[in-house]
Automatic annotation (TrEMBL):
Top-rank taxon, per record: Bacteria
Annotated HTH crp-type domain residues: 172-242
Native source species: Marinobacter zhejiangensis
InterPro entries: cNMP-bd_dom (IPR000595), cNMP-bd_dom_sf (IPR018490), Env_Response_Regulators (IPR050397), HTH_CRP (IPR012318), RmlC-like_jellyroll (IPR014710), WH-like_DNA-bd_sf (IPR036388), WH_DNA-bd_sf (IPR036390)
Gene3D superfamilies: Jelly Rolls, Winged helix-like DNA-binding domain superfamily/Winged helix DNA-binding domain
Pfam families associated with the record: cNMP_binding (PF00027), HTH_Crp_2 (PF13545)
Keywords: DNA-binding, Kinase, Transcription, Transcription regulation, Transferase
A GO cellular component entry from the record: cytosol
Segments forming domain Cyclic nucleotide-binding: 37-158
Designated name of the protein: cAMP-binding domain of CRP or a regulatory subunit of cAMP-dependent protein kinases
Amino acid sequence: MGAAHAVEPQIHKPILFTAGPRRAMTDDLKPLREHALFREFDDDDFDYIVSRSRRVALGHHQLLYHQDMPAQHFYFVLSGRLRLYRLDASGVERTLDSIAPGDCFAEVMIYAEPARYACYAEALCQGQVLVIPIKIYQQMLEQHPEYARSALRHYASRAVSRFHELEIMTVQNARDRLVRYLIDLLPENCRRGIEVELPLPKCLVASRLAMQPETFSRILAELKNQGLVRVNRSRVFIPDPMRLVAISQ
């Protein structure tokens, strides 16, 4: 039997990474100032990081970077939403995560060696990201141990979150995976009926939960028939969050 060979991914979506003018801090950068990776910075250091960063405008389905590309930057979402995904050996896309305004991503590349992006980053709609040079940030961490400690606390928090996501994905029952996913969209300690928005199109949520779109639609219809949810396109109303939590246990 011959050795299996990975299929070379065919990239049809253009990669947008155009240099733009460096700009001073604006109101839409205030969430960056409050992010765990930057909140310990003094004003001069923060202003310096911003001055060495640049904005990139992304169009619908625009790729910011691709899997295995050398990593020289990490990113902060100013507007819009992005999807992170990988291609498996057969060339099938596997959705990993969705990234919203106020989120940093690819920040693990700060400590990676060699630094190569582990997935693709694709814009789901028009938006902007701030492109932050990894080397400049590394220099800040080396000069200021308190910044490094803050960054490590951020990584620890992310690791706990990833373990939780891994726990969800190891559930064999597709219905339980979807229920737990919906619960994760709820605000903390939510007990009253609330409407949440799916962060990804339904077909991509299905991919994120390792199920076929048809299976996702069928399970969502079952939950609707049981009075657990009401669905209006990408919005899901959960009339009794505690009932949803109860069936997940």
